[in-house]
Every structure is written in structure tokens, then in C-alpha cells.
Design brief:
- The chain is mainly alpha-helical.
- The protein has helices at 2-5, 10-29, 35-47, 51-54, 62-67.
- Helix content is 68%, strand content 0%.
- Helix 2 (10-29) runs antiparallel to helix 3 (35-47).
Length: 69
Amino acid sequence: MKNVLTNWDLRRILYLVGGIFFTIVAIKDQTWWMIPFGLYFAAMAIFRFGCASGNCEIPASKKESEGQN
């Protein structure tokens, strides 16, 4: 539960809002095939399993990190 409530960033908020939006629109318009997509994006935000749990960043190369010291 602690992981669900911590480290919220703009990406997670957008995934949650978009997932809820698509789920509501799918239910309202009775396009049942779209519900799993909305639930998937909402689950990505809630359980933080999108992008390998936040490991999307590309690490700086050794040459770049040496130049910044």
C-alpha cells in the first residue's frame, strides 16, 4: 500500500486520469472492448508497473559523467 501512495509524478497522474476517462467513456458509449485498455492504464498508474517501475531513464554514459565533474 505504501508503494501505491508514494512517488506520484505527472506521468502517473496522467495515466490514472486517462485510464479513468477511457473507462467511463467506454461504459457510457457501450464500447465494451475499450474497457480493458482504460483499466490497464489506470492499473499502470496505481500499481506503478509501467516502464519497468520507473526505470525509463537512460543512464548517462561514462564519458558524459566524467565531463561534468
